[in-house]
Design goal:
2 domains, two-stranded antiparallel ribbon, 34% strand, elongated, iron-sulfur, metal ion binding, Fe-S cluster domain protein, ACDS_complex_subunit, 4Fe-4S
Length: 218
Amino acid sequence: MENVKKILKLLPGFNCGACGYKRCDTFAEDILKGKSVNDCPFLLKEEFKGNLQKINDIKGSLKETPKVPLCSSGKLKGLLDGYEADFLLDPLPKEHSCRETLIILSKTPIKMGDHIKYRPLACPIPHFAEIIGESHGMYVVHLEGPCNRFSDSKKEYKEVGIALIAAFEGIYRGKPPEVGKTVKFIPTHCMMQKVHSGVVVEVEGNRVLIEGIDLKVW
């Protein structure tokens, strides 16, 4: 994140969208992931040429990003089921897990900031999570377990039973997704590294929102 801040200070800061991103900070994050600095037309102007070189120097000083592990067919492979996936789904910047949107069937009272224990429909593993958002009866969570939470006595987790996963949001790493297309992906926090499927509804840079989540892969 320190390098993102350095690059952000060197960008014009107009948030004009000419690079394809709504904000300069989002563009700065993806520059470190390989996005071309030249996508910002202002950096090509004489007054910003020095900044352009400094950004390229920051990129050049970084170690090469590890390549995504591939199976023999050239695609990602789920460890549990052996299905092929289009990409891995990493957390958003500064976050420790992908965002999950849940439909919780239990009537247990819950609110923002609560820590819950639930089991996603069709998944045999209990999950532990913190509620970070709520809208129209659906809850956005960050995963906090399961493995390290079974013996954790510092937090109290409300048992809410079965939950439906409505959406995932994160940073894709692999084949670029297209809006409206069904994709197969592996959330990097998934303990079983199982392939999930869903429909891409929004893409901004490397950030993707996938809805209609299903653990069945056809």
